[in-house]
Amino acid sequence: MLRAGAWRVVFLAMTFVLLWRVIYVNAVVYEDTNRPVLRLPAEGPALATGLRSALDSNPADVATLVRLGLSMSAGGDERAGARAFDAALEIAPIDRSALRATAALDARQGRVGDAVGRMDQHIRNYGDSREWAFPLLAKWLAVPSARARLEALAARPSPWMGQFLMSACRDVDPLLTGALLARRATAGLAQRDEIACITERMRSTGHWDAAYQLWLNTLPRDRLADVGYVFNGSFEHAPSGVGFDWIADDRGSAQLVEYPLATGGEGRRALRVTWTGKRGAGPAVRQYLALEPGRYELTGFARPEALQSVRGVHWTLRCAGEKGALLGATPRLLGSSEWERFNVAIQVPGQCAGQVLQLEPVGLAEGTIFVSGKAWFDDLRLARVN
Fold it and tell me: Would you list the DSSP string of 346-366?
């Protein structure tokens, strides 16, 4: 048994421990993860003093270092703030708060390219940061140093660059997002949705030549042989449906667009459109063009198969736009026949920056048309006429 003096010593020791715990708990709060955070004044000189005191006790406390850096920066001493952030990142290189605070300081001091690098680390490690980070990156695209850093990032595999391009596509100058997409295309990283969105934005803002060149850069090398005034007019390759390739409008039930094996055409495959006789209000298939002003001839082969409509179907070439001027139309197709060649003269005026070649029912502009039956097409070409 312990003597009375020994019990007194144990009691006093326990008292001191409990007293220290009371004092500590009054000075410290705990996050949900049980991480201790010092209770300090919200602002003013007492905050910096308290933070330094806390660091004297634990120099490796990253949260305190970041808070000290923010306090110093807010007080006008951004150099001291930067040192605190650097110290935090030395201890924890991917700490969420340290990365964000450092990126903000870099941007505020004009080092926007460095800020992009910090943001890249932040987004890679914390996916939920995209909601606030993407709008900042979109804004920084207008800054040359940030744009250069983003273009460098776009040339490498990235878990977020494609999503960023899609988020920025509708709001940012498409020439800026197009530069990122060009880097991704060169590296073989460009995705279909990115190409579709950015080239469409370029066309809609009048940058037809830039859109066409960007789309060319996204093509695999073996597809460059198909490039002409009409791309893949032989239909030997399945169209991608984006850019200046064939784009089919078969989302409804009025028509079905296919590229099957064919006999009697000019190659192994051909375009086949099947109209179901249901209400239709749009072209079956189209391709955007970027023709220079001048005279052209559109040629091709067609074979209708039990095709029924009031006035038939035909190919038209129009200036792009809601009310684009008609530049030419092929003879209309009706009924059934064997393969027949067609040709039509085209004159592209100087005020027609972009064009669209499309297969549509005759009289489409007048309202809904009903068409049933099939039509085959092959070897569509445009040639410049001197």
Answer: EEE-TT---EEEEEEETTGGG
